[in-house]
Design brief:
By secondary structure, this protein is an alpha/beta fold. It is built from ten helices and eleven strands. The chain has a seven-stranded parallel β-sheet, sandwiched between helices. A two-stranded parallel ribbon has the order 5-9. A two-stranded parallel sheet has the order 8-10. Helix 1 links the parallel strand 1 and strand 2.
Length: 289
């Protein structure tokens, strides 16, 4: 459990934008030693520059695809050879695609698992053993989603990866306890990040005015990436397993666990509503891509 980040080594994926960038900059202000990565090279360079401007030490950063085990392993080896084990490892990078089964392509399913589940696994298998061997304790943070807690409509592929990450984290929570390594799972709901604008909705014309209206409503309900970063750091300090970013997600998950039948009825109706919202009359249905 870590509550003082000055001089602590922290590895963060997805550091170029959104939650990853906001968390990196929060930690930069706290005096952490940052090791950053993202698939977006230009965005990563900007985050590194901004972190250093805040006084942070960023000994190494590298643009890479966390879905590629060898890229992650090589970066991990370089870091551990020169700097030693991390104190905190944060799996924040992720992608999203929504759609019904007949619209989702195999690549949608594959990319969700490769990036959102196998990506964190690649980081865990290359960064956690050195942390364990160092014997200083530490913390692992995995960013799942509200879609890793409840059955959101059209989220089958995305939820497959996020439920998997939550299950993995629950096991590691107990497996790593004897090494004094805490494990937290972040379960964001709506967060105002670039992912809102880039999420692929299979078979849906995002430019349709009614679809755009729902996207704007979603964005208006979203919390900021900075708010999520603060929640993450506060959750680590308290060694929380589930870190909620907004009270509605906590309430929704409690509703599911405590009132299964009403939850089932509600989700059936939500699914119908969601489908009508994203497939409005007169919209052009796009073929799977």
């Amino acid at each position: 459990m870590v509550d003082n980040y000055a001089g602590k080594r922290v590895f963060i994926t997805g550091a170029a934008s959104g939650i990853g960038r906001a968390t990196a900059l929060r930690l930069a202000r706290a005096g952490a030693e940052l090791y950053l990565t993202d698939v977006n090279a230009d965005g990563l360079v900007q985050t590194v520059a901004d972190a250093r401007a805040l006084g942070a030490d960023v000994p190494q950063h590298r643009a890479l695809d966390i879905a590629d085990y060898h890229e992650v392993a090589h970066f991990a080896a370089d870091i551990h050879t020169r700097h030693g084990a991390m104190d905190v490892v944060m799996n924040i990078a992720g992608i999203s695609a929504w759609g019904t089964v007949e619209q989702l392509t195999h690549q949608h399913w594959r990319s969700m698992i490769d990036v959102n589940l196998m990506g964190p696994i690649h980081v865990i298998e290359t960064f956690l053993p050195p942390m364990m061997a160092a014997g200083r304790g530490g913390h692992l943070v995995n960013v799942s989603s509200a879609a890793g807690l409840v059955a959101l409509p059209w989220h089958a592929a995305y939820s497959a990866s996020k439920f998997g990450l939550r299950g993995l984290s629950e096991v590691l929570r107990f497996d790593l306890a004897r090494h004094r390594i805490g494990v937290s799972v972040v379960v964001p709901g709506a967060v105002n990040t670039p992912l809102v604008d880039t999420v692929h909705i299979a078979g849906v014309d995002r430019e349709h005015p009614k679809v755009q209206r729902w996207v704007r409503l979603f964005s208006g309900h979203a919390v900021t990436a900075e708010t999520v970063a603060d929640k993450i750091l506060a959750g680590i300090a308290k060694n929380r397993y589930l870190i909620y970013t907004s009270p509605d997600i906590r309430a929704f998950y409690a509703f599911k666990r405590l009132a299964w039948w009403p939850y089932s009825v509600a989700m059936t109706r939500v699914n119908v509503f969601f489908t009508r919202a994203l497939r409005p009359r007169g919209a052009n249905f796009l073929p799977p891509t």
